Amino acid sequence: MTKEQTAIAHLTQLLGNSQNTVFFTGAGISTESGIPDFRSPGTGLWNKIKPIQFQDYVSSESARQESWSRKFSSDVMGQAKPNAGHRAIAKWLNLRGCGGVITQNVDNLHQDSGLADDQVVELHGNATYATCLACSARYELPTLKQQFEETGTVAPCSLCHGLIKTATISFGQSMPEAEMARAQQMVDTCDLMIVLGSSLTVYPAAGFPQYAKQRGAELAIVNNEPTDQDPLADVVIHEPIGQVMTDVLAALTH
């Protein structure tokens, strides 16, 4: 067998033996659905567009207008569909009935692939809807888009007059306490963590794989590029996620 085939066989064995697997996913799993990542040198979105800081969003009407203009001018995320990697995760977790996903992604593709909300922890929020920053009331994007196109702005919350923002965690915004606690609970009970498509450079989220390994769980990393946590892992694979997970699931469910 090649080095890659040996590594995939090892991952298959780890997953087959696991009683409680947590998948930790980053932007790399969704690039196969056509969603650009944020940090790749030269091609990442943040190399092209300066992100809007949370404090600027809160304090500046022009920053809010720019944020909504960006959101409504491109619907790449809204048009994206789950790929083979998402589907493999959903198939395995629903087959086993335990474990879950901790994701850095905001694209809702894990839920679209068939996972329930309580199986997915979204550390950085969700870009497919909006919420009021004051009372957490939910707003759907098509309604807000129509309002923005007609008036050039998104009005305050109809319930409490708070600011409405996409339900993502922006730069400078506090990490969501409830989601961090849920992720911690998942890691505390898992015996295997599989990292899929994360550079593992964004903390505190990237601390979860390290913590899982320190607790005694097995750790696998599937990512196009090497990460700083590769030396900690029991198996490392630098191959496309969709194909790797399809091969692993095929071996386990044939």
What's the structural blueprint in terms of helices and strands?
Blueprint: H1 3-17, E1 21-25, H2 27-30, H3 45-48, H4 54-59, H5 61-73, H6 76-79, H7 84-96, E2 100-103, H8 109-112, E3 120-122, E4 125-132, E5 138-139, H9 141-151, E6 164-168, H10 177-189, E7 192-196, H11 207-215, E8 218-222, E9 235-237, H12 241-253
Parallel strand pairs: 1-2, 1-7, 2-3, 7-8, 8-9
Antiparallel strand pairs: 4-5, 4-6
Uncertain ranges: none
Query: How far is the N terminus from the C terminus?
Result: 20 Å
Strand portion, in percent? 15-25%
CATH class of the largest domain: Alpha Beta
What spatial order of strands do you see in the largest sheet?
3-2-1-7-8-9
What's the gist of this structure?
This protein has helices spanning 3-17, 27-30, 45-48, 54-59, 61-73, 76-79, 84-96, 109-112, 141-151, 177-189, 207-215, 241-253; strands at residues 21-25, 100-103, 120-122, 125-132, 138-139, 164-168, 192-196, 218-222, 235-237.
What report would you give on this structure?
With 254 residues, the protein is an alpha/beta fold. The chain folds into two domains: 158 residues, Rossmann fold, CATH 3.40.50; 88 residues, SIR2/SIRT2 'Small Domain', CATH 3.30.1600.10. It is 43% helix and 16% strand. It has twelve helices and nine strands. A six-stranded parallel β-sheet has the order 3-2-1-7-8-9, sandwiched between helices. The protein has a three-stranded antiparallel β-sheet with strand order 5-4-6. Helix 1 crosses helix 12 and helix 7 packs parallel to helix 12. The longest helix has 15 residues.
